[in-house]
Amino acid sequence: MSLSLVMKTDHDMAGQSSPAPLDHHRLTGNRPVQFLTAPVPFTRHEASARGISPYRLRTDSRYVQLTRGIWIDTQPETSVIAPLWADHQWLRKQMHVKAMLKLDDEVAGCNLTAARLYGLPLPAHLNERSVHVVTPALNASMTRPGVALHRYKELRTSSFFDLPLISVPQLFVELAPILNVAELTTLGEAAIGPWHGEALTSLSSLRREVTDRDRIHDRKTTESALEMMREGVDSPRETWLRLWLINHGFPEPVIHPAIRCSVVPGVLHPDLGYPEKKVAIEYEGDHHRSSDAQFAADNRRLEALNAAGWTVLRVSKKTNMMQFARILKHHLT
């Protein structure tokens, strides 16, 4: 099945006003959006209203049955609201959650499904096939292939691009049993940071979710992750780099230390740094090399930091980390 990702309109909501206060019940807020052409699930009754006969549903390859009683049109003309970073996989997941809503309008996306839809980082090995949904009805059942139904007595949900999803603080606790401390720390910092724009939640909200609960599966993991989490981290790779430094015996670096430089106006903020030693560490993603403008900007920053007396060490996914550790140790000692 192929989903067409044709952008219909632009970033209509971007830059219109300052960000609204964080609202855990409607997280779309002033986030920039796009509208993508994608299938919208429909029932047999809705098919009839569209003029699609039961015979066509059975015989026309244009219509694909997602699950018992739910179909999609593989040649859609409908537009769905999506975040700017949404891709083909995001559209598929939102489509499956909307299909489950046709069966039970009280369910919401949860677990790994909600994490993917929120755009939170997950380990590569967690490539789940099931659609995870949650309901506040403790006696509810939904026996469908590829669907994992969870029951949550005190469920709180958020509307995220017209999708009901479990609240981010509850999701954070829910994922603790299947993530290790570093993975949960990375996910948590992405949720409270500016990785995809506005923060999804706050560190205080995550802490409150943990402290207010009498029972938590794997409380040790959640509390250890909260202790390691820091605010203002730009990307999961920056989290990884900071944790790598700590785990290899280096002092915890400062996140985005403020550096004034006479060469350029304003204040520079490298990813990580040790101000007392004037050592800055920058993580370079692929876009730093593929974009000429970004490459030029990086060089200007490097020159300015060097002029201010700072040593700048760069790290990428291809860096020999043992060699990097020896160089960093030399500069710190």
Write a short abstract of this structure.
With 333 residues, this protein is of the alpha+beta class.
Low-pLDDT windows of residues: 1-25
Shape: elongated
Based on secondary structure, the structural category is alpha+beta
CATH architecture of the domain at 238-332: 3-Layer(aba) Sandwich
In CATH terms, the superfamily of the domain at 238-332 is VSR Endonuclease
Please compute the radius of gyration using only Cα atoms: 23 Å
What oligomeric state do these chains adopt?
single chain
Organism: Brevibacterium antiquum
Protein name: DUF559 domain-containing protein
InterPro entries: DUF559, Restrct_endonuc-II-like
Pfam families: DUF559 (PF04480)
Write the layout of secondary structure elements.
Layout: E1 33-37, E2 42-43, H1 44-49, H2 54-59, E3 63-67, E4 70-73, E5 79-83, H3 88-103, E6 108-109, H4 111-118, E7 131-135, E8 147-151, E9 157-160, E10 163-166, H5 168-175, H6 181-192, H7 203-211, H8 219-228, H9 236-247, E11 254-255, E12 259-260, E13 267-268, E14 272-274, E15 279-283, H10 287-290, H11 292-307, E16 311-315, H12 321-332
Helix pairs in contact: 4-5, 5-7, 6-8, 6-9, 7-8
